[in-house]
Amino acid sequence: MTESWEFDRPGRFTVGTLGEPGRRVFYFQAFADGAEVAVKCEKQQAVALSEHLVNLLDDLPGDEHVDVPPAEALPPTDLHWTVGSISIGVDRNAARLVVLLEELLIDEEDDEPITRDPARLRVHLTREQVQGFARQVEALAASGRPICRLCEQPIDPDGHACPRLN
How wide is the angle at C-alpha 46 spanned by C-alphas 42 and 50, nearest 5°? Predict the structure, then answer.
């Protein structure tokens, strides 16, 4: 059965990680109406979503910029599914950005397509929620693996074979 959610007024929307840098699992997390939903994503998806949402803030009514702290994630009770596609919309009447996350429909074990409708998580975000989300993504991205000063590639926890030293 496909699990889908729509949160018109979430209490929080954020991103979190499980594990150590270099082996982290990223997840989007939404809280609303006494429910918590967490879905697995890629770091690049979180960074790209943050950048696009921040750019779209200009399309919302009002121009107030409030210094919002990062929207920290909590350890998820479950990662319901893996995010495949992400869509963004603007609801000018409600002064909210709308994010639609859709499930990846490929079996990760044997790379076979799954034939059913994807699960969805739709959240309607305020300006402050977008800013808190963006600050959290920024903090997580900055806390990743150290960068090699020679090749500028991430250094894995097990070591690094720098191509510039060959």
Answer: 165
